[in-house]
Each structure stands twice: as C-alpha cells, then as structure tokens.
Amino acid sequence: MNSDINSPLVSILIPTYNQTIFLKKTLISALEQDYPNFEIVICDDSTTTDVRLLVEQYQTKYKNIKYYHNGGPLGGRGVINFQKCFEVCSGDYISYLCHDDIYMPNKVSVMINYLLNDDNIKLVTSYRKIIDLVDRVRPDLPITQPFYNETKRVSGKEIGKYILKNLANVIGEPTTTLFRKVDIEGKIIDYMGYEMGCLIDVGVWLKLLASGDLIYIREPLSCFRIHPGQNSWNRDLAVRGMIDWYKLITLSYNEQLFISDEDYKAAICSWVGSIRLSFPQAVIAFLENKDLYTELMGYYNEAIESINKG
C-alpha cells in the first residue's frame, strides 16, 4: 500500500476473537487493497496470544496496521468490541472485515467512488460470494443471492421497508459494506437508544438508510465464509436476533420510519411466523439462557396482542 494523502483515509476494522485459522487470509486480503490510503484496525477480544503474534509478523512490514488487545472479551459476544473498533479508528470512511471473511482487491476503491461523488448516498454494498473453510466457492444461500441483476441506486426508505417487512438482511454482513464515519450518530451498536444484541449490522444499515440511499454493486467484492465454528450457528444468538428484529420493527414504527401502519402489521406477522417456525420445544430445550427465551416470549405476547387489535 502506498499512502496517498490526497485520498481520504479508509479504516478497515477487524474485530477478532481466539481465531487465527482464517485470520491470515483475512488480513492479507485487506493489505492487498488497491486503494492508496487505508489503515487496518484490529481489536482483539482473545484470551490467548495467537492473534497478537500473527499480527506482529505483519506490523514489522506494514505500518498502517494498528492492534489493540482488550485483555479478554469486552462483553456482549463481540458487540462491545465492534464498538471499540469504530471508536479507535481514524478514517473518514469505514469498512468492517469479519475475521474469517475476505475482500476482493478492489473492494474499497470501487465502493468509495460512489460516496465521494454524492453526499446523499449513505451506504454502499455488493454481491458477495460464499466460501467454505477451505476457500471453495459454494452455492448462494437464499439470503446471499444477488438482490438485483445490475448495479443500481436504491431508495434508502424503500430498502429499509423491505428489510423490516421481510426480516431479511439483504444488505449483507459487516464485511460487505462501506460508509462514512460521520453519518453514524451516537454509538454504532445502538438503534434509537436500544443496544443491539446480535443484529448490529442491520441496525447500522437502517440508521444510514434513514437519511439517504443505497448503492448495490452486482460485482462480488467480498467473500463470506461459512463454517461450523462461527457465531451465527449459536441457538442463544438466534434468540437474541429475533429480539433485535422485534425492537427494530417497533422502534422504527414508533418513529414513523420506513413502515406505515399496514407495513407494521405485515412485519409483525412475519416476525410471529418466524418465532413459531424457528423455536419449537425441541430447540428451546437446548437453549443455555432460559431468561433470554422468557424475554422473547414477552415480546411475542405483545406482538400477538398488537395483531389482535387490528
């Protein structure tokens, strides 16, 4: 990377935790960006020294790598570490990179041009490929299939409504996007005062889309790795995710943001249907945090009451 002071600084943020199997490839994909001015910020929740030792091998050569060890997990299953990355970075533009994912070399350079040329564009994302633990490209999942067949600009309000009505993160994981730091008000992990427990990315996307438009790029600019050890396979985390969806829907509706009365009812009905489908007794029995399930059922009863009121 050759620093270019005429190009705005982009912060590539990598939250890490006790994992170096994929981190080397992740870090290399960040270092190989063809954009001329970026820093890599690694905030490490690890309880071991493995991540630090790996990063130090690269810091001797690449002075744009900043490493912060948190002394162990900061809390919230990585949520607080996500916030720390945002707080300690210096860039005007933010691009998260999950510690097992991969960037294409032109990811940042392609995306930033849209933000530089139009202040009303608040978020840029792209199609992403699915890879497995040995880097083989896998078939798309329903949620990762190309949302559009071409690169296009989309109304933030319209895509926000779609996300809430369908409980679908069609924008992508944190790795897929680029946005301006200044466009995030308050804590990045909060949505209207509510601290996200799982769907941090969706909360961020909605905050940005509330005030501007989305650019969707059809070209794949990142790879999302799926493997058995990742957080998304955790049952308790799935419950937290459903609680987050309920809060995103109700908070948005209360502020008359994205969804109308009719949209709200459709979104709540979708949410109730997902609860019934996703949490049968067989799944509940394996939950570690029964209090979390009790909280979910409280919101479920609220939702049923809201539907019955018409």
What does this structure look like?
This protein is of the alpha/beta class. It folds into 2 domains: 10-231, Spore Coat Polysaccharide Biosynthesis Protein SpsA, Chain A (Alpha-Beta Complex); 234-309. It contains 10 helices and 12 strands. Strands 3-2-1-4-9 form a 5-stranded mixed beta sheet, sandwiched between helices. The mean pLDDT is 94.
Keywords:
Spore Coat Polysaccharide Biosynthesis Protein SpsA, Chain A; alpha/beta; 310 residues; 5-stranded mixed sheet; 2 domains
Q: Shape from CA axes?
A: globular
- Low-confidence parts: none
Q: Give the distance, in angstroms, between the N- and C-terminal Cα atoms.
A: 58 Å
Number of helices: 10
Class per helix and strand makeup: alpha/beta
CATH level 1 class label of the largest domain: Alpha Beta
CATH architecture annotation name of the largest domain: Alpha-Beta Complex
Mean pLDDT figure: 94
CATH topology of the largest domain: Spore Coat Polysaccharide Biosynthesis Protein SpsA, Chain A
Percent of residues in helices comes to 25-40%
**DSSP strand content:** 15-25%
Radius of gyration: 19 Å
Major sheet: 5 strands, mixed
> How do the strands of the widest beta sheet line up side by side?
3-2-1-4-9
Number of strands: 12
Order of SSEs, N→C?
EHEHEHEEHEEEHEEEHEHHHH
- For the record, what is the CATH homologous superfamily label of the largest domain? Spore Coat Polysaccharide Biosynthesis Protein SpsA, Chain A
Q: How many domains make up the coordinates?
A: 2
